[in-house]
Amino acid sequence: MKPYLSKLKDAENMIIVIMTIIALSVLASWLLSHGFMFDGASQRWAKVLGVLGSEEIRLEDLSLLYPHLPLYALVPFYYLPGMAHGGTPYFVSVLFVCMLIGLFLYHMRPIEISASKRLLLVFLLVVHPTFLWGATNGSQLAMSMVMFYLLYHACQKMIAEHDVHAYISLSIILAVFFFVDGSAVFLFIALLPMLAVVAPRRLLMASPISIYFILAVPFFFSVFSWAWLNWVFEGDFLTFIKHPDSTYLGGYMEMFNYPWLREYGGNFFDSLVAATGYTLIAYPVIIYFLVSTWDEGLRFRASFVLFVHPLLAIALATDQFYLTHPMEILVLVNASILAEITFLDMARKRVYWSVVSFLFISLIGGWWIFIESADPNMNKWVDSFRTERVLIEDDDGSLRLGRWLNENRRETIIDEKSGYKVLVAREDAVGLYLSYTSKFKLALNHAFPDIEQIVVPDPESVIGKKDKISQRYPRMYTEGMKGYRLVYSDNIWRVYRKI
Amino acid sequence: MNQVETSQRPKIGACLLEQKLITDEQLAEALAIQQGSGRRLGEVILANGWITATEFYGALTDHFRRGRIGDLLVEEGLLTPAQLNKAIALQKGWGTRLGDIVLSKGWVKSYSFYKVLADHFDKPFVNLMDEPSDEALVDVGYYHVYLENLFIPWRKVDGLTQVAVADMDADVMAEVERVVDGPVDFVVTSKFDIVWSLQKYGDAFFSEKSVHELRKRQPEYSASTVFTKAQLIFTFILMTLTILAVAIWPIGTLITINVFISVFLLFNFGLRLLFTWVGGDKRFDNFITDKEVEEVKDVDLPTYTILVPMYKESASLPHLAESLRNLDYPLSKLDIKIILEDDDEETIQTAKELGLEGIFEIIKVPDSLPKTKPKACNYALNFARGELVTIYDGEDAPEADQLKKVVLAFRKSSPNTAVIQARLNYFNVTENWLTRMFTMEYSLWFDFYLPALDALKIPIPLGGTSNHFKMEVLKELQGWDPYNVTEDADLGVRLTQKNYRVGVVNSTTYEEANKDLHNWIRQRSRWLKGYMQTYLVHMRRPLKFYGTLGHVGFWGFQFFIGGTILSVLLTPPMMLLFITWLITQTAMFDPIFPAGLLYINLINLLMGNGFLITLFMLSGFKRHYYKLMPWSMTVPLYWLLMSWAAYKGLWQLIFNPFYWEKTHHGLTSYATSSEVSDLSLKTKAG
Q: What are the respective helix, strand and coil percentages of chain A, to the nearest 5?
């Protein structure tokens, strides 16, 4: 009987996961078709297209300025027929959050609650705005949520069972997290004081340093490996935190563009207080966790870590001018809430309905704070729910240029850092000379490059100011170049072709 | 009182007639012969073969036996009444014979005991050292029967073969009659006299058997041939093709080799991580609980043989004896063999001077080649009488309940489980850097890797000691390979191939970690040479091996045994390459390190080493050796030492394959049994 019930539960869980995939995919498509496009997602996809479309595929061309695992996650989709379009990163994000839901349901298996109750829980968790934002914005956040879920689950295990597996998992998760998300460093540092709460008291009395050794060494080796790769390929161990384009710097280079950093940047305690406010409004369910476990030593420690760890990470990251918006880390709290629920006695009606009620209240608070504090990207995302359907948003004409280049396939030189959306719309990089290639560098060495087509943006535009071709040939956009004729001009982009 | 009893006994003839074992005519004839020869009536009846000895003594048990053995011992002043009462109480719990108990406790000397036993059975006592057996009566084909039942044909008098026995048990008598020609009667002697006599007569036979048994019966598993012809031809072809390929396509070939090495190392590292994960499961630490051990009934426990091969370790002997005495196991069910080499006068003398109790037997192994531990163990196996058998080294201190845990582990495991490996660890943990590293390595190996191998059904290379076998299986496999210098590892793989399972148990034996670098290199080079021998032996017919072990077992063997060898051999050239590049920044190696490969290499170098350091830390962590954890950062240095030993082992494999690099024990200043017991108790409590 037991195996049958177990199989039935597996089948029900599978149906819930598939329903989630379908629902979130439909939602992501809706958002994209209503004008939403996240720059981070386009940049990542353009990077993958650029590297995999090159004559010679070199991993270092993925650039050491981004954590690599979210890029690797996109690689298989490049080779899948029909997947090489701009929607891929969004779909991959959906898949990762569904993996998260799958993990959650898997860990829920020992708890005896009906499929409909599980479905209701999943629904309430998924429709939280921060969860939806992480699931559909095509960034690395979905992958980070999976990692954070595993991290928190390992912490819970350590608290509950003092199992060797928990130590191994936690050390591996932390080491891998560094390759997933730049904020992992802050999450790691914020976890250090929390370990005093997580680790068993007997261990802390015997050797408090031992737990730090086990968890920190793999993480340090990850950072060291990355620094080493930087040295091998870029000649400097610290390129990834010195280079102005590095995502490891977060908002540091453009701190004045972000209201959050303008207000709280460099201020640990103020940002801590503000983050606490955000958390309590967006996730009042945490209050329930804390109150309901008040008299249970071990469970309370877990709830305490769930509450305090992200706050410390936000405060640290803000203090260092990394975090552009608290939601970048608060999104991860969704994952820890999922993990926490797997440790609750959800079979008890009182517990189940209390959690459901608080999740519902969290939804209200979450949507309110999300809309109130939204940055331009979030605003665009929220607007896409209610604006009219558009084919696809194309403010600066990059996508139209991409489609034109797709139809006019010739050897073309383009700076993919400014033209990443062009690459996304062209759907591959075959025949393109991108900024890291030797042909691109050689071409720009000459006053009159010998290339069939040259793409140049308006040097007066925001994009044009950063574009290497525009910088090298500042008058080309307006005056053209000897031996080349203008074949395309739309919005800020022009294409010159060799005569 | 006894005299009165004797005088009231019915006559032998009458008894036999009453039970219709002889006829009136036979009795009359026997009485006539008795009068003429002056021999005893029973001897005459037996010599004529009218009835068997079993029938004779079966019918006349009460007639011959004098009192109870315990009373006789007290009467002789050999045992105090208090000791007798204690022995009787133990007998109820242990379910063994009173004589075995008093001997195992050392309350009565063996010689005195058997004299009383002879008196009890109303039989003459013979000292085989003074009055040796007639060698012509000893049949080489029945050595194992003599040893199993503890008897030896002694002399032939008037057509009656006198057989020296250590007990007049009905089963023993039946066996005697089965294997000894003609009518028999008995004399009593001590079991040690029987064992030593059989050793004396069977030296050549046992030596030959211990060296050549496996080679003759299962040559495919014997390491006596280091490289088979096929292996040599394969190696030659592979090397020729590699050289040709390097000459014709240098870059492509070097990249291919590089890919092979890098991917192999990556898998090897990944596998170790997987092993640590699987082996870290709590169920392995709680496989046998203390409660289960408490509940086990001594009476149900089997006889246990403990083999202790020693060579020039006289200093360790008293500590070892103490450790074995302290085992939580009915002493009378222990059959401990102290195995000493014939030329090791000092240890032999120490053993004699210690006056060890009856559970200890000294087995002297005659001098012959190869002079290895497996040969000594094979030799001693002939004299073993236990249902289960284990090996401890001279400096070992097993946890007191280990044997009980093993018995329970066998009961809990599948019927095809042939051996249970206990965990090994060290008692001189913090003596110096080497002992620290060694301890962490061993903890990782025995606390994580071996349970994982068990769970994943990958052949387990048994550790050097504390492996507990079912005797019948061990004998079926012809024991250990005397030509293999890691005979234990080889046996583990051999068992798996024969569809037996190798299990593990959560009990630890504490040993002495090597604190001397030179000594460590000797030991490690032998281990790695043995691994190479084991790999070569089992890869003689790789397809058959694959078929027997299946995918997981085969590849697990490749990576765990083969991987261990290859990784330590590859470390120095790879490090050299890396350091050359680091110092000179030469672009010479660039063509053979395309970006993808460079990535894998960097993962191996940094992440791989990082996680291996963490695994070492975890091993210390699990054992609560917290102070060792920072030392794990020096693992790469330890790795280099292993490479040094590996190259030495490789050299010896080619030029001196069967040489046993002896590890010297007793170098530690920590080694006392009391300290070890304390340590084991602390660990258990922790």
A: 70, 5, 30
